Amino acid sequence: MADKYRCGKCWKTFDDDKLKVLPGVRCPYCGYDIIYMIRKPTIKVIKAT
Ligand SMILES: [Zn+2]
Q: How many other CB atoms sit within 10 Å of the CB of residue 7?
């Protein structure tokens, strides 16, 4: 599962494969250098015994 990222300026979301194309961590849309990583909540399986 790939992590998602969100730009701190234009708030667009993008995958980490778009992030790897650019040198350093920058928004591929506006070039802003503050990026938030969005982690999807993991689904835990709870067994009721
Ligand atoms: Zn941006």
A: 20
Domain range for residue 31? 4-38
Please indicate if the annotation marks 7 as binding a ligand. Answer: no
- Taking the centre of ligand 1 as the mean of its atom positions, its distance from the CA of residue 40, in whole angstroms, is 20
Q: How far is the CA of 12 from the centre of ligand 1 (A)?
A: 6
Q: Tell me whether residue 49 is in a domain.
A: no
User: Per the domain annotation, does 19 fall within a domain?
Assistant: yes
In this structure, is residue 27 part of a structural domain?
Answer: yes
**pLDDT per residue rounded down to tens, the chain (49 residues):** 567 889 999 999 988 887 766 667 788 899 898 888 887 776 778 788 7
Q: Three-state DSSP class for 36?
A: strand
